[in-house]
Amino acid sequence: xxxxxxxxxxxxxxxxxxxxxxxxxxxxxxxxxxxxxxxxxxxxxxxxxxxxxxxxxxxxxxxxxxxxxxxxxxxxxxxxxxxxxxxxxxxxxxxxxxxxxxxxxxxxxxxxxxxxxxxxxxxxxxxxxxxxxxxxxxxxxxxxxxxxxxxxxxxxxxx
Length: 159
Known about the structure:
The chain is α/β, with parallel strands linked by helices. It has two domains: 4-75, Orthogonal Bundle (Helix Hairpins); 77-155, Chitinase A, domain 3 (Roll). Helices cover 38% and strands 26% of the residues. It has three helices and seven strands, in the order βααββββαββ. It has helices at residues 8-37, 46-70, 124-129, and strands spanning 4-7, 72-75, 90-95, 101-107, 118-120, 137-142, 145-155. The strands form two sheets. It has a five-stranded mixed β-sheet. It has a two-stranded parallel ribbon with strand order 1-2. β6 and β7 (145-155) form a beta hairpin. Keywords: DNA-binding, Elongation factor, Protein biosynthesis, Transcription, Transcription regulation.
């Protein structure tokens, strides 16, 4: 079974979602199925079929969350250090074309969210950054085209 690397914050957010789906969503959906079943003929009962579909999706997500949590390898970013980029590093980059500064933390696939500055370890930008250090220049070949970045800072802080 392959381990899934993630930060402690990523693990906690998966636990919170699992608890919500198990303790709040599951009973709510069961109640909706009961109410729809009370309306009679199930073959033409849209509410019943919608509630059953919702139950299927919720149970599938619960199983997915349980699997990810059981295979999680929590990496404590606060205990990491060094000058080279690796999992958990928060990296400050300067786009060499636009001079725009960007800050990304390299995290596991399940917790990646580019809008919040968290990029997946398997993303093109993270793969280009791994092993590099402050002052290095990297070229990232992404779906939007190749871009060059200068690494201006590498640090390890918890999210």
